[in-house]
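Chapter review: from sequence to fold.
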Amino acid sequence: MEFKETVGNRRTIRYFQPDRPVEKAKVQKILEAARLQSQHGNAQLVRKAVVVTKGETPDDVRNGLIDALYNQPQAAQAPVAIVWVQDMSGWKPFKENLMNLMKANALPTGYGWSEDFIDNTDNAVLATEDFNISVNPNPHFAEWLTSFECGLAVGSALLAAVDEGLGTGLITGRREEIRKLFNMPETCTPTQVQLVGYAAENLDGGGGGACPRPDFGDLYFADTWGNALPRDPQVVEELKAAKLLQPEGPHLWRKAELNALAGMFGLPE
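The token string follows.
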């Protein structure tokens, strides 16, 4: 599938075929896409995941996760759940990671990078014992950046699932309960859980079409805050042709589909 169409096709799927397993190869491809996303300072260990698979993960663990996800129906239906986690201990080898970037010739010496610069423990760019990776008055800066890094990976994972013809969507739950369920160390915080499976609803579900979005000019500004960036109508038409921009829902058939799905899963209409 072309990249633009993959982006345009992404929907939050809420109904899954519970007894149709997901091929392990497809799950691996989702994780590989997340692993290759951009990361600040080559901090590759700050974002991790636990994969929970119906029929393989012990029932008490999977049921515990479903309970921690507020027993939402889609959590029980999806045969695979990927618990995305940010791990603050992943900043510990920050200096080593930068050195590896130097060895790979990724950090330009013309910008002042050198092994001596990285090895200088007084440098503001280096990790401290409490994971503050930059001199910043906000003590939560490293936590914010870690969340951002995890979000980048999850975004790629969602698109990879769509590209594989799977249904996928994010769901949230009781984080501390999830952390204890999987025996995660204190440095870990579960973020979102990505549900993966074959959709029981039309893949154009999630509202029966693309969800409404804010106007382009309400999101993006030129030169100063609040000055709407112009949106070129010709580019819009090109993106419609490439299927990145798709008609907004709801489709006329969506209500009937929801009623049928409710009957299928014994849920109220």
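Two observations follow directly from the output. The mean pLDDT is 88. The chain is about 40% helix and 10% strand.
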